[in-house]
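Lab meeting, item 3. Inverse folding demo.
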């Protein structure tokens, strides 16, 4: 009886070892599969001047002087930036404001951009990779404060109150920011237009995905009032 028992024990142990190895192999395989990295393709943003328009494509010279081909479809959104009067600001409006800190610790609005949800470009910035690429410098913090030592910055939020020239913004974190409109504050809004409104020589901002050849398939084309920093627009082709 003892001999038979001794014979059975090694067989059982061997079977247990095989099961354990199989389990470890499966776990290792599962772990390997779970840690496989994924690649997120972020949209391309290009600012420049329209050189030419042909059917469903544009030739754009960017701020570095490089030309890019841009294609658009029926799904592409076309947006024009237009200047409006202060009375266009309404409680509940979503805005982005460029502010400057004054010597008396108040804040003046240099520009106010009214954001039109119906005129936003066709992409999202949900991933961490893309979010860092498109960071616009919006701030959170103590209500009414924008951070010491910074003369200019941008804050985005919803207008919660308007009292004379004082505008209170509430951001996504629930902080309130008070800014003052001046006679030099430039207020703009976004209007939805069509591809027929595009003209050679106009400054634009293109948002979309670029293919392997560098051609941008535009999700949105924004017609700007001017290039950043007051740069002159490139001379379009004849």
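The presenter then showed the designed sequence:
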């Amino acid at each position: 009886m003892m001999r038979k028992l001794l014979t059975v024990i090694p067989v059982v142990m061997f079977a247990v070892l095989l099961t354990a190895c199989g389990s470890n192999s499966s776990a290792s395989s599962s772990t390997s599969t779970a840690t496989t990295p994924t690649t997120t393709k972020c949209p391309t943003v290009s600012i420049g001047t329209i050189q030419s328009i042909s059917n469903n494509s544009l030739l754009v010279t960017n701020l570095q002087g490089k030309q890019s081909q841009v294609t658009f479809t029926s799904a592409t959104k076309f947006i024009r930036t237009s200047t409006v009067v202060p009375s266009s600001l309404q409680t509940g409006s979503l805005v982005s404001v460029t502010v400057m800190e004054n010597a008396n610790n108040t804040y003046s609005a240099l520009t106010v951009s009214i954001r039109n949800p119906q005129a936003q470009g066709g992409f999202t910035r949900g991933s961490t990779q893309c979010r860092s690429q498109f960071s616009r410098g919006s701030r959170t913090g103590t209500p009414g404060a924008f951070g010491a030592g910074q003369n200019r910055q941008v804050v985005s939020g919803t207008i919660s109150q308007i009292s004379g020239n004082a505008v209170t913004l509430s951001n996504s974190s629930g902080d309130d920011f008070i800014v003052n409109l001046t006679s030099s504050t430039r207020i703009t809004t976004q209007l939805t237009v069509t591809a027929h409104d595009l003209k050679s020589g106009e400054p634009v901002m293109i948002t979309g995905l670029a293919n392997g050849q560098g051609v941008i398939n535009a999700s949105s084309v924004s017609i700007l009032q001017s290039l950043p920093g007051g740069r002159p627009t490139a001379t379009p082709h004849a």
